[in-house]
């Protein structure tokens, strides 16, 4: 059995169980999804990843478990979590679209319903701008969970910040600082970073973390 790097045994088990449960909810034999799950794990083990690893997937699965009862389509959210960073190439700007396309193709191959696939694809595409599209009730919780790291305690945020920098280690420091500041400033300029009441307590810590990173360069 492949391990999920950076996550505990219990998190690994929970992430795999969520995948299989998602297949069952979708009316698909979980055994059919095992080869795809193995390939997904391999994708998250790629050497250029430091933050966007299977540990991130396991973290989001854990968060989703806490609000599963609030979801309109828990299977779609599970698949969106597993696929949203399946294709991650820091030198490209089409990762979200490519990941959504991969999800669509593989879920189609498993025999998933078209309406389920459409929701998964739209959830993944929404991670490009982290703005929930209309008519997608689970998008706000899904996107807030993906941004929860921004409101983490300073030591955790520092590790996240360092991991992102490693993923962009090929970018010269002055350019990286400028581009990173642009991304973080865009979040600070929003009226709210977090869209749901569940994640609202992270708003102030997130703003403090982002401001400190920008100020620190």
List the helices and strands and how they pair.
Elements: H1 9-25, H2 34-44, H3 54-66, H4 74-83, H5 95-109, H6 114-126, H7 139-146, H8 154-167, H9 173-188, H10 203-216
Helix pairs in contact: 1-3, 1-4, 3-4, 4-6, 5-6, 9-10
State the end-to-end CA separation: 41 Å
Give the overall average pLDDT.
Answer: 95
Q: Main sheet, how many strands, which sense, barrel?
A: none
What structural class should be given to the helix and strand makeup? Answer: mainly alpha
Number of discrete domains? 2
Portion in strands: under 5%
Instruction: Return the string of H and E elements.
Output: HHHHHHHHHH
Shape: globular
Range of helix content: 55-70%
Number of strands: 0
Describe the 3D structure.
The protein is mainly alpha-helical and 217 residues long. It folds into 2 domains: 9-146, no CATH class; 149-216, no CATH class. Helix content is 60%, strand content 0%. The chain contains 10 helices and no strands. The protein has helices spanning 9-25, 34-44, 54-66, 74-83, 95-109, 114-126, 139-146, 154-167, 173-188, 203-216. Helix 1 crosses helix 3 (54-66), helix 4 crosses helix 6 and helix 9 (173-188) packs antiparallel against helix 10.
From the structure above, extract its key features:
2 domains, mainly alpha, 217 residues, single chain, globular
Sum this structure up briefly.
By secondary structure, the protein is an all-alpha fold. The protein folds into two domains: 9-146, no CATH class; 149-216, no CATH class.
